[in-house]
Amino acid sequence: MKAFQYATAHSTDSARELVAGNGLYLAGGNDLFGLLKEYLVGADLLVNIKSLPGLNKVEHGKTFWTIGSLVTVAEIEDHAEIKKVFPGLHDAAAEIASQQIRNVATVGGNLAQHSRCWYFRHRDTQCLKKHGDLCYARDGENRYHSLFTGNSCISPVVSSLATTFAALDATAIVLRDGQETRMSMAELYHGAWENPLAHNSLDKGDLILRVEIPTTRTRSAYLQVSDKHAFDWALVSCAAAAAVVDGKLKSPRVALGSISPVPHQVEAANSFLDGKVLDDATATQAADLILKDAKPLEHNAYKVPMAHAIIRRTLLKLKGDA
Amino acid sequence: MSSWPAEPKYISHSTARVDAPAKLTGSARYSSDIQEKGWLYGMILRSKWPSAKVTAVNLDKARAIPGIKAVVVAREAEFNVRYYGEEIAAVAGTSKQACLDALRAIEVKAEVRHEFVVNETEALKADSPRVWDNAPNAPTPHVHENGNVDTAFPGCAAVIEGFYTTAVQVHNPMETHGNTVSWTDEGVTAWASTQGITSVRDGLAGALQLDHSKVRVITDFMGGGFGAKFGPGVEGVLAAKLSKAAGAPVRLMLTRFDEALAVGNRPSSFQKIKIGASADGLLQAFDAENYGTAGIGGGADAGGGGGGADIPMPYIYKVPNTRVKQSAVAINAGSARAFRAPGHPPASYGMESAMDDLAAKLAMDPLELRLKNDPSEIRQREYKLGAEKFGWKQKYQKPGSSPGVVKTGIGCAGAAWGGSRGDRNTQGDATINPDGSIEFRLGVQDLGTGTKTVIAVVAAEMLGLKPEQITVRVGDTNFPYGPGSGGSTTCPSVSPTVFDICTKALEQLQTQSGMADVRGENWFAACKKLGVSPLVVHGKWQPGLSTDHACGVQFAEVEVDTETGLVTVKKILGVHDCGLIINQITLESQINGGIISGMGYALYEERVMDDLSGVVLNPNFETYKLPGIADVPDIEIVLINMPERGVIGIGEPATVATAGAIANAVFNAIGVRVSSLPITPAKILAALGKVPPPVHA
After folding, report:
1. CATH of the domain at B61
2. Residue numbers of the domain that contains B187
3. Could you give the CA distance from residue A310 to residue A271 in angstroms, rounded to a whole number?
């Protein structure tokens, strides 16, 4: 990697100032060090943000919970209350990578991580996402790629926390130009939908401070399918959340990961499910709606039936015991 | 004729690995841990192009990088590179980062060829770009015929045709390839991560034009090779040249990225099989065409690289009428090398899949079909014993008849491995000290398979001592000659050798001590009579104590989620033989490893190359998927001890049958064949007809 300076920020103001030149924020470093080592990003200064006060807390209020961006994935996984209140979030965290990685990976880093597309990550392919002329995956090895995209790049979002936050209708609070900006998960990733060079909507210097999760959806679930049984990326992931009143879904939301540059959400499916009693038939219809406009490529069409199956299963998990 | 003790105390029992404490505490120093005084890091610059003519390599800027002590080219003058990752130059420096910077500072001028091919099926086509200018990518297939298949098929009651394919598998030992090399006026010392200290010595001596006696190779501990670590490799020779140029020891261990490119792999296979049987299930005719790629090795005039991509067909079965056509196709990729049971896992997968497809056509239990056709008495025994343990009769149901979304299935497959009785030139010595301590020195190496423990167990048995009283030293070319560890031949090479050393030691100790019995409790008294000089005895391999040809069968039970395509292996039962068992616990460990590796071959492992750029897309463990502990099922091992056969190796037969057994269990579960390894969720869903066609924008 290129040589860089290192500094620790003790306030968000100083973090912003430090990063303003050619700097990058450093928290868990799982993604950043990989990018630096492969010369996929470069920086003159790494700004350690692990000492920023107040960002490593999980706080619960009556109407929403706040999870600081420096909370680790392992802390989410191990949090007994989160497991009760947001079981989908717990399950998503528990599936991420390995224990060693979860121990240092942060919520902010998980949300801001870059594409895992093997053309983007390869040191010697100059793909669209790296200012090249073409998306190699489109007519190439696209087994892990998107069924949906708004641009020419088909690398999908792989943050399973983002998928789950989307289903829970969580909001990311981002420090931008000194102001706190509120972004839904759709907004947080919209940039990647439009722009092949983008991994999300964050601008240079933007810092995710925390995520707010409303408590209105008392049920949540998460499932993923991978080639392997552990420590493997999701081929498709699905999160669903809703309240259940008199046996009927209220404000249901479904989101999928690894099939689009953004957490894939279809409002028509959410409104279809609203007020419905969950059974196989409703779950199936919702899955049909969610996948209706999928554009499978040569090697990723399997994701359509796979996604269909886990949408149904995730929704049926919402029924729970009660 | 010599013979093994009839009622052994240690042989055929379990002795914990003698180097387990050193490995568990981290005190064991592997080749990649070596830090000689003043050592430098070494690194290799590789081709960024799958095909190019390199016209000039300018090292000046690299030399100017602070910390860089030497820069050398891999080849002089103009040369062609024929795959992404071929070696161009190497650097040595005081830090990893200095080396990385230097690699980026080397200027390579090349005429890049945009015509190349990395897909073996494309490479077969007449208009495909050629890997070698003067040779077609695929030489004319060689044909082996017995009887007459054309007249035999019409008389068959059942005939099936299948196309079974396997992916290129990368060895990926946990310790990458590499060496620390120190080249001084006295000669060259290499600490190598190798399966063959002698072949590394000879290879280095040849490449560096030194006397063999001037090169010493040491391998105290190494982290696996699986067939890909015999010679010094380009990386070993470059490390030596860097060491000479820098005047310092150079440690050049490849990166995981490098491992995927240039240091071997198992060739792919594309097996078109037609097989027919009479109504009673006896095989009558077998007609097969197979091609696979061994990278650039396949089409070279001289055979090149790691040889061809042929597999034994129709594998373990005897069929009266056969026709087998095979060819190896060259592509712009790194050469194949021997890989644990070369040719056998793909052969077993293809043939055993065809057997189950045939059994389905005959409406016959596939185990019964095997018992009717397998010519090996040992495997017949193993199948029957295994079926009993596994509960085959209770569990077997017709293919596809398992109810529900998550279906269960079982399957089995057989293995064969010729191997050898051992290298008859294997030698060793023992120094017996007056205090009764004893040290064995053999010029073999322990790949992690337990060779040191085998030596200790045999010696303890013969001398009436305990294994922990035996000091074992291996992995040094200064010791008496030992063979490379390949072909499952190390155990049958060293066991008779240690037997001979011990026999001679006992004889000479009897003579020198004047005691009639010097074994066991008399050992120390006898040694004391040696006075001040130790007794040094030399021994060599003796016939009659080892043999060849192991068998082995495996049974698999799987669950297949027919909605997500996920395959979960629930159970593997391996029934194995390797003649006289020397040490059961390390033997079982070998078989566990073989089965887990076979699982990787069946379900996860595949080198993926990109047609457009020619690069390997998965040069890492993120997307080159290996089985992890969560994927590993309950593994049960049943051993048949056959002392009357003498010692046979187990490394290779242990990994052969796993993929075939798993593939057949998947077929049994879902009732349709996934005829391509690895069996991924995507392929399961495709086989079930659930995958929609792609949408072309």
Report:
1. 3.90.1170.50
2. 34-114+177-253
3. 19
Do A96 and A233 lie in one domain? The reply is yes
Among B617, B679, B696, most A C-beta atoms within 10 A, so best to mutate, is B617
ipTM over 0.85: yes
Whose CA is closest to A208, among A234, A240, A173? A173
Q: B411 and B285 share a domain?
A: yes
Q: Sorting pLDDT into bands at 50, 70 and 90, what band is B697?
A: low
| Chain B interface residues (partner A, CB cutoff 8 A) | 48, 84, 97, 100, 563-566, 568, 603-604, 608, 610-613, 615, 617-618, 622-623, 625, 627-631, 680-682, 685-686, 690-695, 697
Asked if the Cβ–Cβ distance from A136 to B695 is below 8 Å, we say no
Which residue(s) pair with B323 in the sheet? B145, B287
Please indicate whether, in this complex, the C-beta atoms of A140 and B610 are within 8 angstroms of each other. yes
Residues B411 and B478 in one domain: no
Q: Residue B218: which H helix or E strand, with range?
A: strand B215-218
CB B149 within 8 Å of CB B287: yes
- HEC secondary structure over B103-132: HHHCEEEEEECCCCCCCHHHHCCCCCCCCE
- Cβ–Cβ gap B617/A296 under 8 Å: no
Q: B402-434 pLDDT, tens per residue? A: 999 999 999 999 999 998 999 999 999 999 999
Range of the domain at A255: 58-113+154-318
List C-alpha distances in Å: B272 to B162, B323, B350. 6, 12, 9
Smallest CA–CA distance from B680 into chain A, residue: A227
Tell whether the model's pLDDT for residue B2 goes beyond 90.
Answer: no
